[in-house]
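CORE FACILITY INTAKE
Project code: CF-77B
Contact: R.S. (postdoc)
Sample description: multi-component assembly, two entities in total
Requested service: structural model of the whole complex
Turnaround: standard
Below are the sequence entries exactly as provided by the requester. Do not edit them.
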Amino acid sequence: MASPPPLPSSTSVLSSASSLADSLFQRSLDDLIKSLRSDPSSEPSIIARSLSEIRREIRSSDPLTKSIALQKLTYLSSLHFHSMSFAAFHTLELLPSPSPQTKRLAYLAASLSFHPSTTELLPLATHQLHKDLTSLSTSSSSSFPFLPSLPLHLLSLASSADLSSHLAPDLVPLLSRSSPLQPKAVAATYRVLSLCPSTVPVLFKPLVDCLSSDNPLTVSAAVGAFCELSAPPNDPAPYLPLAPEIYRVLVNSRSNWTLIKALKIFSRLVPLEPRLGTRIVEPLSKFLRESQAKSLVLECIKTVVSCLPTHTEAMRLAIDKIKELLSSDDDPNLRYLGLQTLGMLAPGHLWALEESREVVAQSLTDPDRSICHEALRVMMAMTLQENSIESCTLLVRQAAKSDPEFANEILDSVLTSCSKDFYELVVDFDWYVSLLGEMARIVHCTKGDEISRQLVDIGLRVRDARPELVRVARELLIDPSLLGNHFLYNVLSAAAWISGEYVEFSKDPMELVEALLQPRTSLLPTSARAVYIQSVLKVLTFSCNSHIDESSSLVNDTVIARMLSLIEMTVGPLAESEEAEVEDRVRNLLGVVRLVANIKDLSVDKDKDGMIYEVVRVMDALFSDEMGPVSANAQKKVSVPEDLDLKDNLADLSEFISDNDAAMSRSNPSILFYPQSCNASEEVEVGPTSVAESTSLKEHRKRHGLYYLSTDKETTEPELTEDYPRVNETLPPSNGDTTRRVKVTKLRPTVVKLDEGEDLATSSSLSTKVEAMKDDPLSGAIKDVLLGKNGNGASSSFDASSSSQGKGKDKVKGKEIKSKKGEEGESKDRHKGRRKHKHRKEPAPPVSVAQETPVIQDFLL
Amino acid sequence: MIHFVILINRQGKVRLTKWYSTYSQKERSKVLKELSGMVLSRGPKLCNFIDWKGYKIVYRRYASLYFCMCIDKEDNELEVLEIIHHFVEILDRYFGSVCELDLIFNFHKAYYILDEVLIAGELQEPSKKTIARLIAAQDSLVETAKEQAGSISNIISQATK
C-alpha cells in the first residue's frame, strides 16, 4: 500500500508564509480520494476546490509540495479529464529532481499529459531527457539503474519530431547494450522512427541488430516494432530484406507473442514476394497442427487465408480449424472469430463457405450483436447470382424479426449488394421488386430513400419488370396505414410516380385514382403530394385516351364520369393550398378536368367536339415519351459551341442574388462554373467567398484534377434557376449524345446501362490512393538505408540457405517491380475504410522508387 | 497496437486510463462515455469483442471491473485477451488478492505496473516474475530514497542551505 507522504519537515519553515501554509496543510492524494468517495454528490465542487488548491500549491518552491500537488493533478486529469496543461512548466521543473519518487511522479505526469499538440514546452525537456537517457554511462546513477526507462516511456508516448531527432543518438547505446532496458529502448525507437524519418540512418541498423539479440525479450520487442512499422497505411515493401531474419525468429522462437508478431509481418510481406510464401508454409502448418494456444492458431489461420490461397494443404488445415472454431458452442468468442475468418475466405473459396451455410444462418439469430454482424457479413459474401434469391429472402425475413438497428443493417447490406454493378446479382427482377415492396413494409425500416431510388431506377432501366413494379406500387398505394409512416413517404412517392408513368400496365386505373386521392394523403409532405397529383393527371389522361379509343374495357362512361367527379371533389379544395408545388399541379389537373368534362357525352356523338379529342390526344402525347436513365456524364458529352464564351466564374451574379434565393447559395455562396475541357480543374478560379475547400485541397485538386470525381456543378445547366426540390419525375429527357450500352444476358431481362461514366468514380479513387501511398517519407528513408545495405551484398548476415543469396539479388529488382503491385494490393486494405489518427505525414514529393545507384552508407559497411 | 486501456467499474466510474494514441481531453471523455455505454450493457454470455468505429474493443470483466483495450482491426483479439489477463495476474500478485479499492488508492502504482507490462501499445514483458521483481526493486529504491531524505542529517543539510 502506498505509505502516506512524510510530514513536511522543518525545512518548510524557511520558505515564505503562504507556502508554509500550503505545505503544512496540504491535502495528500489519499485525502483527496477519500473526500471524493465520501460524498459523491458534491463531486464537482470538491474537484473544483482541489483544482484551485492545486494551482496554488504547484507554484510553491518546495519540491515536496509541488510533487504532491502534481500527484493529485495527475489523478484528477486522468480520471476526470481535466486539462493538465497549466502544470506543464511545473512538471518540467520537477523532472530533474534527485528524489526517485518525485522523478517518477513527474515523468508519469509528463507522459500522461504532454503532447506536441497540447503543450509547446516539450522542447524544454530535451536536455533533461538527454541526461536521463545517458545516465547509465555516468557513474553517479548506480543507485537507480532503471532511470532511463522513464524517459523512454515519455519518448514513446509524447514525443515530437524535433525531440526525436535530438534524442535519437542517445537511444543507440541503449539499443546496443544487452540490458533489461533494451526492449523498452526498442519500443521507444520505433515510435521515434515513425515520427521522424530523418533518424532512420542513425537508428535503423541498431534496431535490426536487435533482431538477432540473445535476449528473447529484445527479439520480441524488435519483431513487434517491425510489425508496427510495416502496418498499413505504411508501406511494407522496405522491410522485405529483413525477411530471412524474421524467418529465423519464426522458426526458433518459443514465445507465442513473438510468433504472432512475426506471422503478421509475413502476412504483409508475402503478397509482395510470393516465394516467401513457400518458405513459411511449413512452419505455419506445424503451428496449425500442434499448437495449443488458440491465439497462435488464429493468427496462423489469418495468415494462411490471406496470403497463401494456393497452397491447398495449408488451406485445408486452416479451413478445418475454422470449422472447429465455428462449432464451439460454449465460447462465443471462438464462434465470432470463426465467422470472421470464414468471411476472409470469401472470394476465393466459396465452397468452404457453402459448407458452413447452416451455421452462418443460425448465427444470424444469435443474441449476441457482434456475432450477428459477422454472420451478416459472411452471408453477403456468400451471395451469388444463383443463391441470391434464397439468401435475400432469408435475410429479409430475419430483418422482420430483429431489433431496429440490426434490421436496418440487414436491409442496407441487401440493398447495396443487390444494386451493385447495375443489379448484377439479380436475375429475377419480378422477385426483386416484390422484395423491395416487402422491405418497405418492415416495421423499423429507415431505408426508404434507397428503396425508392431503386424502384425508380429499375423502372427506368428494366423494361420487363414494369408490370410487376406497377403491381407492387399499387399495393403500396392502396394501403392506408403506410401513409402515416414518415420514413416511407419517399417510397410512396416513388410508387405514385411508377403508377403514373407506367399506367398502361395497370389493371384498374380507377382504383389507382382512388388510392392516390384518398383522404389520408394529406399526411404526406408536399413533395410526395405533388407527385401524387401529377400521377393522377397521367392516369386521367391515359383513361381518357383509352376511353376515346375504346381500347380498354375497364374505362367506360360511368368510370370516367366517376373519375372526373372524384377528382374535382377531392382536389378542388387543394387549389387554394399554400404550397406552390401542390397548387401548381392541382390547377393543371383541374384545368384538364374542365376541358374534358364533357367527355362522357362523347359516346353519343363521336364526331362532335373535336376539341376534346384534340385535348386528349395532346395530353397523351405529352406523357407518352419514354424516359430513360441519364448518365452522370451526360452534360460533359455536349460539346461547347465555338462561339460561346463561358466566363470562368459567375461571381458577378452574386450581386443579383439575395439571401432569400436559398436554392443556389445553399451550400456554397460563390458560383463555380467549370469550363468544358479535360483539364477543367486547372482553370478553375474559385470565387472570393468560397468556403467549400481549404487551400491545401485546392492545390491538390489543381495538381491531380484529372482524378477527382465530377462534382455536381458540372452537370447543371447554365441557367441555375429551376432548383426547387427534385421530384422524382423531373428527370430531363436523355441527351441524344449519350451512348447506350445494352447488356444482353440470356434469361435475365435487359438492364439499360449507359456509358462507363457511372463507374468512373471507383477507379479514380483507387488511383488517388495509389499516388498517396508512394509519398511516404519513412518508407523512402528505410528503402535508402536497406538498398544501400543490399547493393553492397557483403554486409548481409543472412541465413546461409542456398536460395537466399539468389533471392537477395532478385529481391532488389523484384522489390522495385513488386512494390508497385504491393501498393495496389495495399489500396484494397485502404478500402476497408480504416482510420488512423496517429502520425499524420505530409505528402512529400514522390520518392523515386527505382534507385539504380544506391548510396553506400559508410556505417553500414 | 493497443490504442488505449480503460478500467471501468460496474457503475461506470473510471478507475484507470492510459492512452497510447493522441486523443484530446474532450475526445477522451467522449470515448469514455461511448465505451461505458457499450461495455456495461453487454450480457455475461456474449463474446468479448466489440466493433467500434473501425477499431475493435476487447474487454473482460473481473469482479466489478471491466478491463477494456482498444486495438486495430487486424490485431489478434485472443492475444489481447491474454494480455489483459496477464496484467490482472500481475496486479494480483503485487497487491495480494487485488480488489478495486487497491486500485483506487494506489492509483500511481497501478500506472507504474502498467508501464512495465505495456509500452507504446505493445506487450513488453510476458513474464510475471520479472515484472514483480522490477516493481519491487523500484519500490525499494523509492523507500530507501525517502528514508534518506527523512534522515536527520539530510534535514540539517537542507536547513543550512
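Facility notes:
- Residues 575 and 584 of chain A are 8 Å apart (CA to CA).
- Chain A has a mean pLDDT of 70.
Invoice: internal transfer
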